[in-house]
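ARCHIVE CARD
Drawer: 12
Card no.: 0347
Subject: one protein chain, sequence and derived structure
Cross-reference: see card 0346
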Amino acid sequence: MIKLFRKIHLWLSVPFGIIITLVCFSGAMLIFEPEITRAIKSDVYYVSDVKESPLAMGELMEGVKSTLPDSISITGVTISRDPSRTYQVNLSKPRRASLFVDQYTGEITGRYERLGFFSTMFKLHRWLLDSANPHGDGVKVGKMLVGISTLIFVIALISGVVIWWPRARNNFAHSMSIPFTHGWKGFWKGLHVAGGMYALVFVLAMALTGLTWSFDWYRTAFYAVCGVEHTPRSFAQAGGAQNKSGEGRGSGSRDDQSRGRGGRHGGGRPDGDVRREGRRHSEFGRWQQVYDNLKAQNPDAPQITIGPETASVTLSTTGNSRAADRYEFNKRSGEVTLTTKYAEAKEADKLRGWIYSIHTGSLGGVLTRLIWLLGALLGASLPLTGYYIWIKHLLKKKDPAATH
C-alpha cells in the first residue's frame, strides 16, 4: 500500500511541481500587498495633514464629480476609521476604478492602481499569466492548469502524510526535524518531509478554499459539504463593504459596485441629480447624514461605505473579514429603509466571506497572515526539494557510489 502511495505521490507531483511552486510563491507574495502598497504610495493613501474635521461629503463628491467625464459616475465612497487615510471614491468604470481624495482639502491624491509586481503575481497566481477573459467561449487554459495543479497538490499532500506516518509513528521527533549536519542531501530531505508536515494544515486550507474559484463542480460540492446551498452573490453581499485599495488579493476582494451599474436603482436621471420644483439637488446630498448616523452607531467600525442608496459597515478585520452590516436608505430623506445585519445574511454569503478569509489568512489579522506567508513559502519549496530528492535517487541508482 505504501509503495502505491509513493508512486501516486511521485508521478502526480513531477509533471505539476513547477506550477505548484509558482502558484504557492505568487500567493505568498500577495499576502501583505495592502501594507506594502500603502507604504510605497503613502502620498495617495494618506493625507498630508489631519485637521479637526473633514469637508462635507457632498462638497467632496461634487468636487470629484466635476473632474470626471459624463460617462463615468461615482458609485460610492469608502471611509476608514483612521482619520489619516484618504477617502476612496469608487467609480462606475472601468472595472474596479477608484480615486483617492484628501477629505480635509478636497484634493485628489491619486487613483487606485495595482503595483506592477503585484499585478504580475496576481495574474500568475490565478491564470499563470494567461488572459482572464479569452475571446468568445474559449477555455481559460491558465486558470484550468492552476485548478488541476492545486487539485494534484492536495492529493500529493495527503499521499505524503500516508508515506510519512509509518516512520513518524516510531520516531516522531526525528521525523519532524530538519538536520543541518548531514550535508545538503539531509537538509533538503528534512525540509521536504518535516517542512511539509509543518505547512500541511495551512497549505491544505489554502488549496481546498482556492479550488472554489477554479471549478464550478468543486464549489458546489464544497458548499454542500458545509451544509450550504451555493447561490450567486446577492446585491447586498456585492455592495460596498470591500474597497479597492489593495485590501485583498482576489478579484472578489474589491467592491463590485464598480462593475458598470452606476450605483443607481430604477429610473434615476442620467446626470444623477434629483430635480424638484425646478431646483437641482445633489445626488450626494444625504450621504453625510447617512454616514454620520452609521458612524455614531458603529464608532469602532474599520470602514464604512456609502453609495447612492446603499451603505455597509465592515464589522471587523479578523474572523470573516468580509462580515458587514448592510443598509438601504432613501436618497432624498436619508432615512434608512432596510437593515440587513450580518447575522441575518444568507449562509452562502457568509461562507463566501469565510472562504476568502481562510484562503488569504486574513481571519486572524497580521499574525495569521504571517503564518500563511511562511506556510505558502514552505508549500512552494516542496516540489523543488522533491525534485532534488528524486534526481539524487535516480543518480544513485545509476551510480551506487555517488552519495553526494
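Annotation on reverse: The two ends are 30 Å apart (CA to CA). The beta strands are 74-80, 87-91, 98-101, 108-111, 274-276, 279-281, 303-306, 310-314, 324-329, 336-340.
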